[in-house]
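Feature request disguised as a bug: please show the residue count (287) next to 1,4-dihydroxy-6-naphtoate synthase in the output. Example input:
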Amino acid sequence: MKTISVAHSPDADDIFMYYAIKFGWVSPKDAVFENLAADIETLNQATLKGEYDICAISFALYPFVKDDYALLKTAVSFGEGYGPKLVKKKDKQLKRNFKVALSGEFTTNALLFKIAYPEARITYMNFLDIEQAVLDGTVDAGVLIHESILTFDKELEVEREMWDIWEELSGGGLPLPLGGMCLRRSIPLHSAIDYENTLIKAVEVANKNRKVLAPMLLEKGLIRVDANTLDNYLDLYANDNSVNLSELQYEALDKLYELGYKHGFYTSLIKAKDFLIPSEYEELRAN
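Example output, currently without the count:
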């Protein structure tokens, strides 16, 4: 059996969507998945270096790795009226060139932030350190992601929602693309299709069995938040819309890549559907 490396972030939605595989509820046909967790920018950088077979990434990274990785249709996170938050200490006035902490150069929130605040002075740090950096004055503001958007300190307030920036830039009516997964193109096509189908099934099974899986993850200490926060967070980022990319989500991805191209962050304009695994191949082969 081949061993396939699968890297995901340690945030609650990624762990939730993957652990149906870890617990043996779902498995690929011809391989064993070996998983590891790291913060999203570490995974973005690792994908640039081609380190993992399957990897969670920020959607904003994908145009940089499109030649080596196919975009997967599952385990996706989108914001629908919510998303990362730009926070500062209460009553602090931000100057045009304020110093801000972001969770990584290739994150989706960084792309949108740079478009919205071209004069801000950016420093990158692990997403777990951003809240404290704002509290102790290391930076003037920071963009919180993952569970921090629900649990940040009472001394902080939201300066601006990344959702509002997205609405203004995109023209409205589209979900905010945050993160997804990609798969190494050198993997044989029939195996790639199986691995993607395994992940789709895992997300589907996790979502349908949330009342069983969520307490198991909490009991094993795999989640950083309490039961109520986990429930709220999964409502946001691990739900029916995470199982398989929808037409509206494809449209949102294309708008994200159009904005990145228009503002000079990408050298070419891409359409998300052009970079998927051609899963119809298995059906054609069977006929």
